[in-house]
Amino acid sequence: MAEDGMNREITITRVFDAPRDLVFKAWTEAEHIARWWGPEGWTAPSVESDPRPGGELLIVMRGTEGDDHPLRGVFVEVVPPERLVVESTAVGEDGQDVLQAVSTVTFTDLGGKTELTVHARAVALVPEAAMMLGGMLAGWNQSLQCLDDVLSGAVDREIVISRLFEAPRDRVFEAWTQREHVERWWGPKGFTLTVDEMDVRPRGKWTFTMRGPQGDFPNTIVYDEITPPERLVYTHDAGFRTTVTFDDFMGMTALTMRLVFDSAGARDLAIEKYNALQGGNETLDRLGGVLEAMADA
Question: What is the pLDDT of residue 1?
Fold first, then answer.
């Protein structure tokens, strides 16, 4: 299908560290769908699923502003635990159908792990739905990351912060990986940064000191994965692993920073004692200012 602003077609492949039967259940049983379906920060407070050919699927997604977005679907093919085909329709605020899609999902057994491929074709039925198509890839990527968090158990021990920047992801990735930019924004409000080393490559180290009102805080980060301009994964010496994803959204960047701790207790301590959630949001606020300055330069 040609992409012309009112049509879009995407394919995404992910590998989950979970058996195929479990991943298939996560896609077909209402109680599991409700835990991961939707973009980052969204919830699915109401899910009905009848996973058989001709069976209905109803998902009410709730956005970050509390607005509900119903999705009506029909299972066209159900081949446990190998394949699903679902036809779905997104419904607008006035009850009008605004977008139609066909999603084909395949589940390949990798000996205890599962390779999952989503192929989705969508058509906007009204001009306003063109923006939904623009966010289609980012939304699927974020949903699948949420699924991974549920399957791995990370959902109970993570901090997730998201932001939409009015800047292309190449620029945002550059601001996150080049020393001269990072020194201008890393850290909460009121902090400064001194970088000793920043070797942005797998197994490379980033050592730095954050200086704030309460004193100096040395840090060491080791880069695990670097996929420009899509994804960064690194491990912090304080005992957590961070994944940063940079998704294109109509020329802007939907950024998600996900910190996964060893336990829920360690996550709670980081929030309560070290203000990690507030600090992360303030850090991304500062990044936004730097991106604006980069655009004006």
Answer: 41
